[in-house]
Amino acid sequence: MQKKIMLYDTTLRDGTQGEQVNLSAEDKLKVAHRLDEMGITYIEGGWPGSNPKDARFFSMARSVSFKNAKLTAFGSTRRFGVTPENDPSIQAILEAETPAVTLFGKTWDLHATEILGVTLEQNLEMIEDTVRYLKKEGREVIYDAEHFFDGYKNNPEYTMKTIAAAQAGGADIMVLCDTNGGTLTHELKAIMDAALPQISLPVGIHVHDDCGLSVANSIMAVLCGASMVQGTINGYGERCGNVDLLAVIGNLQLKMGYQCIPCENMKNLTDLSRFISEVANVPPVNQRPFVGKSAFAHKGGVHVSAILKNSRAYEHIDPETVGNRRRVLVSDLSGKSNIEYKTREMDIKLGEAASDSAKIVNIVKSLEDKGYQFEAAEGSLELLIKKITGQFREPFALESLRVTMEKDGDNDSTSQATIKISVGDEKEITAAEGDGPVNAIDNALRKALNGFFPVIGEMKLVDFQVRVIEGADGTGAKVRVRIESRDSNEIWSTVGVSENIIEASWQALVDSVQYKLLKEEKNRA
């Protein structure tokens, strides 16, 4: 029988302490619903006594019935010299009306004497009093032993007295925290081996990633006997972040036989990561284990050749197990295997001989040497392959393009583009203004083509990135422009390279429009 590991998610509180992470009360409710659907055991909603937003979240959450998770409110032990009944922070925790509460107390003697300014005995009383009061009020109490590992290294006898105080007060779960994230894995094991025989409660682990060891430390803690892991989705959190629960789930459930969430929900891990990233407005990390866009991306020709024969050669799990997918990239490191894989993926037919593949590889490598990058611009790549193999007919041609910019004193500048294109035997001349030269070109091109190809009205430009490829030439250096476009069904990227940013932008814009027209042609076929 699989051993069950309780997952305690603190994305809504500890996660929001990370730089650039900010969630409204409404956002937090959305995230809580998704975490509940995934089968997370505990969801920490926030610290109700610390700010109005968290108080509002708990107010809204009172009317929500969670199917799988227990919502918890977070707070600290009572203040020195104040009883729990008269401590506003403790009362705010109770007013959140959550079935469980998480209480943190000072475990490191340094924090008791230097940070709180109390005696060691007074700190013990604050821990026991607060836990006992919350238990008397009918709450399940999860006790977070803050700075447990640093405290144990400094004064193990006193650290264990704080644990005993929380136990005496009636705590239900004891969580050992590596709050500074500086404990090495072998240290964590030695301390847990010594401490766990003195703890009569279920034990949890809460670690930060300041040494890059949060996943390893969480797994080691489970091997030592911990039955709860606290962390955040995507590893959001203060400084270097908390442990990423997605990596914990992937390793414990897929590799080690523990059950963290229902098996049928494993395929939703990647979607959960991207959902949280979107709500938090934090760009996803492509290299994130298990769920990142690059987690199963293959670029080297030798690697691609191998996975075509047996994916296990370069993939530790099937990407679909966690809702991810295999990606084969085409670049200057590619071989014929990359091209053959991509053309099958794009439903492009190559000649029976290997000459088409070899020709495409050589042209791609030559273009990447000039600054192009096709691994992040698959719209341009598909067009390039079809052009090389004679399977694409240019739908329009540029006859001329003129771009002007006018700036009057301190006023905002204006740009205008005049364009002449030909579609078959017909020609069209038009002009348009824009906020900048690229915007003006985009508007003029669409205006010129709209009468011939109304379908381009469905697409819009959603991202525009410029990168200087080699800065040694200063303003004369080559630039690479990557454009991301979308319609109601798909997002695609295109690329252009030139010493002239307008020319590079034109290349990427034209590829973007041509890719849209290519899609429509496929749909009609």
| Principal-axis shape | elongated
Give the tally of structural domains: 3
> Total helix count?
17
Q: How would you write the strand order of the largest sheet? A: 1-2-3-4-5-6-7-8
CATH class identity of the largest domain: Alpha Beta
Work out the number of β strands: 16
Name the assembly state. Answer: single chain
What percent of residues are in strands?
15-25%
CATH superfamily caption of the largest domain? Aldolase class I
Query: What percent of residues adopt helix (DSSP H or I)?
Result: 25-40%
**Sheet having the most strands:** 8 strands, parallel, barrel
The CATH topology label of the largest domain is TIM Barrel
Distance between the termini: 53 Å
Q: What is the CA-based Rg, rounded? A: 29 Å
Model regions low in confidence, pLDDT < 50 over at least 5 residues = none
Protein model, in words:
It is a single chain. The protein has 3 domains: 275 residues, TIM Barrel (Alpha-Beta Barrel), CATH 3.20.20.70; 73 residues, no CATH class; 128 residues, Double Stranded RNA Binding Domain, CATH 3.30.160.270. It is elongated. β3, α3 and β4 form a beta-alpha-beta unit. The mean pLDDT is 89. The relative contact order is 0.07. With 525 residues, it is an alpha/beta fold. The chain has an 8-stranded parallel barrel with strand order 1-2-3-4-5-6-7-8, surrounded by 8 helices. The protein has 17 helices and 16 strands. The longest helix has 24 residues.
